[in-house]
Write a structure and sequence with these properties.
Helix content: 25-40%
Radius of gyration: 14 Å
Number of strands: 0
Number of helices: 3
Distance between the termini: 30 Å
Number of domains: 1
Low-confidence stretches: none
Amino acid sequence: MVRNLVEKGERVGVLKVRLFRPFSVDQLLDVLPTSTRVITVLDRTKEPGSSGEPLLQEPTASGER
């Protein structure tokens, strides 16, 4: 999917997080291009009743930088 978008000229990419605890905002920011404006988190974990999935909660709980 991402390859198809890139071939069409879209400026998109994928960052696969393999291990996210302990979460490091600095390491995340190091691998993102400086041109990054939007991040979308896709997580396959479903926790009923939670306010968000674990991979979304970690970066948002770390605060904005």
